[in-house]
Every structure is written in C-alpha cells, then in structure tokens.
Amino acid sequence: MSHPKDAPAVHPVPPAFAAQANLTRADYQRLYAESLRDPDGFWRQVATRLDWMRPPTQGKDTSFDREDFRIRWFADGELNASVECLDRHLAARGDRTALLFEPDDPAQPAQSVTYRDLHARVCRLGNALRNLGVARGDRVTIYLPMIPDAVVAMLACARIGAIHSVVFGGFSPNAIADRVADCGSKLVITADEGVRGGRRIPLKANVDAALRLPRSNSVETVLVVRHTGAAVDMQMPRDRWFDAVVEGQPDQCRPERMNAEDPLFILYTSGSTGKPKGVLHTTGGYLVYASYTHACVFDLKDDDVYWCTADVGWITGHSYIVYGPLANGATTLVFEGVPNHPDHSRFWQVVDKHRVTLFYTAPTAIRALMREGDGPVRATSRASLRVLGTVGEPINPEAWRWYHAVVGDGRCPVVDTWWQTETGGILITPLPGATDLKPGSATQPFFGVRPALVDADGRRLEGEAEGNLVLLDSWPGQMRTVHGDHQRFFDTYFSAYPGMYFTGDGARRDANGDYWITGRVDDVINVSGHRIGTAEVESALVSHPKVAEAAVVGFPHDIKGQGLYAYVTLVAGEPGSDALRDELVRHVRSEIGPIAAPDHLQWAPALPKTRSGKIMRRILRKIAENQPDQLGDTSTLADPSVVDALVKARRDAG
Ligand code: PRX
User: Fold this and answer.
1) Position in ligand 1 atom list of the atom nearest CA 394
2) Which of 201, 387, 408, 454 is deepest in the core (most CB within 10 A)?
3) What is the pTM of this model?
4) How many CB atoms lie within 10 A of CB 647?
5) Residues with Cβ within 6 A of ligand 1?
6) Hey, which bits of 179-245 come out as E strands?
7) CB 607 within 8 A of CB 549
8) Is the pLDDT of residue 68 over 90?
9) 394 annotated ligand-binding residue
10) What was the ipTM of the complex prediction?
11) What single-letter DSSP state applies at residue 567?
12) Residue 509 counted as an annotated binding residue
C-alpha cells in the first residue's frame, strides 16, 4: 500500500487523550493478558457492573466442541434488562437525559427524554402489553421508525420478559411476514408512517400487507404509534392505537426476574444459504458485554453525549444505541433522518446542536459525505467531538483519513470496530487511549477475545498471515442459537473448523499483530454495511414467472462498498428488455426491500457451471468487475462458451 508523504501509516495515541483515558496502553496489555489467563474470573469481575437481582455465582461455561457444545455465561444470575437500563439510574440520575431525539426535519423540535420519563413510558407500555395478553417468552415484532418509542418498545418487552424481534423499516411486507412467521409473533408494534430524508414510508400499510399473508396468522394485535398523523386503515379489533392503550396505565411495572440465559431478543440476519436466520441473544452475558465494550471502546465519561447513526433495526442499534449506552446511564441520541437531508452538513449540524462528543457511523456514510468535499463539514464547528467510530464494513484508508483529518480535525481517535450480529458486541477494535491507529485496520482484540487465522484446511496460521478469521473461545455477548434451529447454529458457525467459531470473514494480521478485515469469504455481500445473502436475492429473482435461473455476486462500489450484480436467465423464448429489467429490480424490492435491489442486471443465456452443476461464482465476480483477463482456471467448466458470451455482453454494456 502506498501512502502520500504527509499521511502517516500509524497514528499514535495523542498524549492529551491518553492522559484522560479510562484505559491506557498498560491497562489494555495487563487486562487483556488477565482476560485470557482467567476468562471466568475476569468476566465475573466485569459482570459486577450490573445490578443483578441475583448476582451470578457461575461465570464462563462454554465449549465449541461438538461433543459437549454449550455457551452459557453467568447461568445462575437473575436480572431484568430494562431495570439495568432504567431503574438503577433513577436515584442518582433520574433527571439526566437518557434519549435525545433529533427528527428527520430539522425545523421540527428536538426532544429530550430523561431516565425518569423513559422509565415511566416503558412501564406504561409494559403494563399495556401484559393487559393485551403478552406474557414472558412471547415474541413481539417491532417495525418502527427511529423515534423514542422504538426504544420504549424494546425495553417494555424486556421488562415483561417478552422477546423482541425488531425488523428494519426498509424491509418489505414479504420480509416482515417471513420474520413474523419464523418466530410466531403475537403482537406487532408499528407506526402510521416513517419519514426519512423527507420521504414518507408507509409502515402500517406494509404491516397490513404482511399480515394478509397466511403465514403471519400468529399475530393477534397490532399497536400503531401515531407519528406523522397520516390516515391509515385500522382493522378492528386487531389494530389498536398505541396512545390509547398506554393512556392511564400506571407508571410502575413489575419487571420479570429473568435468568441470565433467558432470551432477550431475536434479530434476523442474512447468511450464505437459505432464509435469514433468527440470531438469538440472551440477557446477562449480552448486557455485560454490550455495556462494557461501549464504555471501553468509546472511553465513556459521565458527561458524554453519544450518537450512533445506525438504525435500531440492526444489531448496532440494539447494542450501541439502546442496551449498551442505557445500561451505562449515558445520553444516547436517536436520529430519524439521513446524512444528506436537507443538506450534506446534517450530521455535523446535529453534532453541534446537541454537543455530541462520541460519534459512531458507517464507512458508506463517510464515503458518501467525503464525495461532497470538505465544505459542508468545515461549515460546522464539531469542537465537542472526542472519539469517532466506524462499523459495518472495511473502511478504506482514504475514507479513514478524511474522517480523522476533516471530521475530527485530526484531534479525535478513530475506532474501527469489527463485529457481527452474531457477536452481540465489538470484538476487534482499538481502544482510543491505548491503541496506535492504522487507517484501515481494526487493530487488536477486545478483552477475552481470541482471534486466529486459519487456511482452508483449518490449519492455524501464525505471525504475519492472511486467512479465514476464526475465534478460539467464547465471550459473553455471543449469540446462543438460531431461533428454532439449534442444529443450523452449530452447522453454520462451528462445523467448518472444529472447536472454533468461524466468522465468515477473511483477515490479514500484520507484523505487529494488528488485524485487517478483508471482507466476507462466503456468499454474503455487504452493501452499505447491510448484509445481503446472495441466495435470498436469487430466490427473489427466481420467484418471478419469467425467470428460469439467477446468480448474484458482489462487485466493488465507490459508495456502498459492494454492490449487487445479478445474472438472470429467462425462461425459454422470453426476450430480455429494459422494461423487464426494471420490473425484476422492482420485484426484488418488493420481495425483500430496497436494500436488496440489484445495481446491475445482466441477461445470461446460460450460467457458467461445473460439470456437477455448481455455479462458478468466482468467474461471475470477475466478469462483473470487468476483468475478463483474470478469470483464472476455467478448465472445470461444463461449457466454456457460456463464459465468452457473458464476457462479450458485459464488454458491450461498458
Ligand atoms: O464482514 C464483516 C462486516 O460486517 C459483517 C457483519 O455484518 P452484520 O452482522 O450486519 O453486523 C454489522 C455491524 C456489526 C462482518 O462479518 N464488518 C463489520 N464491521 C466491520 C466489518 N468489516 C470490516 N471492518 C469492520 N469494522
């Protein structure tokens, strides 16, 4: 890699930052060594940061081996996540701001919700849910915009021991129905509409369409938050206004005593095969891990204002907008809008308006804003910022440098945090007061985390190396199962390399032991930091009557990181037209959601296959990248002329 002369390859911890940091380099080295020497003792000590109803006497109880496979942490502890996030802060900091809400439209007033207010709102909804027959262990689907009620809904579920499944507001009715059916939700919480960048999203209408599908028949009740005030169909007695059911409810609500290993939530995520998996996280270990990583990675102080720009529909929103920050008694900002509305200064205007100190966003947003130049950033102060974070995909060094130099004025450490829906919290990351930074590297493992690199045969690679990233031991925030399919959990993550958790990512380790994540090595594509399974997009395409076969691969995209490139074989006699191409893209949008819409769709008279009928995606990727001279070994192709035709069509398309 080449660097411009004035761009250092390593950014040491600024001395002024180190002087005030919660954790210094020496702390990191000492605690990391301790966490590996005695993980049980280390995490039991960390677990005392929560106010357990019954403190655990057990710590780590895990094995990744097939014979005695188990993942349990603090297994005899009892707690309630909403109590950890709310009640325990009331005495000392009840009047402190828990949530800052910044609406999509900057002309609308911001809101500030104190811990006391949030507690009361959660209790009222918890009581209302109980009255509606929602009991401990029941599943509740949440399909809401980024508004305070989304946080209220999650915590109200946690309070009564219901398991929430938040579905991102960008998913289509079909995708909602899949997720409702998989976990058998009894109740859905939605809003009349969402608003993003001035555009309205018909959330209630999407839920209506989802619930018309027969597989969604577990749903008894739909609660509707009045957000924009738009007229919506209310189907009685199923649909109830949120306001009406919480009104008059007591502002105290008995929290369920949950076992540490009781489920807290299910969150669906894409894998390389089949339908999205319901990733299940439990209560005790998850909360210990989310809160501790949040405090350490962001160097959290009492007076910080913390803003993570993710949506609560993703794991980042769960762990680092809701559970981590609130368990820590922090102020967390909930932003309804988008980075470029009404203009490209919006993020930084919000930073100045609320005096945000800790800021966490995705590389795709940084790249999109970088393209607009420095002007929109320089027009704002950003003097409040202390730490900048990124998550979701590899950050290219140019974007890292721009974020550091322009957004942070060269003053704020940038923490590039690597983790996954499955991991519950951050696993590989710098600690801002402890770690020298390298643009593009997630650097070092967090406490207790044991990354390793293996080759395709599972042999450990030592020292400087590149290979598949695995984890050798458990950490408290690890997912516990795939909802309803424990075998799939084991097979997906623990069967490729026996005794290890396989991440699905590739990585390089440099001479200093710093990790550089190179991206997915499976058939998952990371589009703007969102995980899309090629299998899902292919099955959406094939569900169209005119499509015989489809193959989807990723290709490099300037803003999104990766885009989706679809090869489509039509049924015999069907001519490919521009109109049909548009129709197929629309079809995928309505089957899954706009995030899964292919960026390119190429007609393929046939797909390159091996003699045993396996699609050769490696070749399709090279054609998509317009690098036909790098197709590699094509000798196993059943019919090489198929490739020539695709290459020619790709070249003609430019
Ligand atoms: O490929 C890695 C990438 O995002 C994947 C996980 O996606 P998801 O479960 O949706 O969670 C995203 C938010 C935690 C990983 O397998 N990824 C995430 N963070 C990084 C990353 N790749 C490189 N660098 C990161 N910091």
Assistant:
1) 23
2) 387
3) 0.96
4) 18
5) 269, 315-316, 391-394, 416-421, 442, 503-505, 517, 519-520, 526, 531
6) 187-191, 194-196, 199-201, 221-225, 239-241
7) yes
8) yes
9) yes
10) 0.99
11) E
12) no
